[in-house]
């Protein structure tokens, strides 16, 4: 069974940091374009970062996360990370990992991030 599993979410105070992980089970993440999305309550899902199979960030990040979020991958661990610094209450939401290659798409179940004092 091919799965993506996100972890690393939680409750953090404004200004804090979290590192999210996306691990592939039954699929080699190194062969996929990986993207992180987030969905805040009552809002549409938003793309926040992407990384190619060569480890190059793919997208101009949204202004809301620019210079605060960094995506990286460790193919040896079959894992992609999203380092989030200087977190703000508006970063609250469920963060999803997506693996894409051609017409093939996999999604994880999401991990909750809550930024609150």
What labels would you give this structure?
mainly beta; four-stranded antiparallel sheet; six-stranded mixed sheet; 117 residues
Summarize it:
With 117 residues, this protein is mainly β.
Per DSSP E runs of 2 or more residues, the count of β-strands stands at: 10
Please trace the helix and strand order, writing H or E for each element. EEEEEEEEEE
Approximate helicity band: under 10%
Measure the end-to-end span: 39 Å
Largest sheet: 6 strands, mixed
Overall spatial form: globular
Query: Structural class of the helix and strand makeup?
Result: mainly beta
Portion of residues in beta strands equals over 45%
Number of helices: 0
In terms of per-residue confidence, which ranges show pLDDT below 50 for 5 or more consecutive residues?
none
Measured on Cα atoms, how large is the radius of gyration?
13 Å
* Assembly state: single chain
């Amino acid at each position: 069974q091919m799965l993506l599993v996100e972890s690393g979410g939680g409750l953090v105070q404004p200004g804090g940091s979290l590192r999210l992980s996306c691990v592939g089970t039954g699929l080699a993440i190194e062969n996929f374009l990986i993207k992180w999305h987030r969905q805040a309550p009552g809002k549409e899902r938003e793309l926040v970062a992407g990384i190619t199979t060569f480890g190059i960030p793919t997208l101009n990040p949204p202004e809301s996360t620019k210079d605060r979020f960094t995506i990286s991958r460790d193919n040896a661990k079959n894992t992609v990370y999203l380092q989030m610094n200087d977190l703000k209450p508006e970063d609250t939401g469920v963060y999803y990992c997506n693996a894409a290659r051609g017409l093939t798409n996999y999604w994880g179940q999401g991990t909750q991030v809550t930024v609150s004092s």
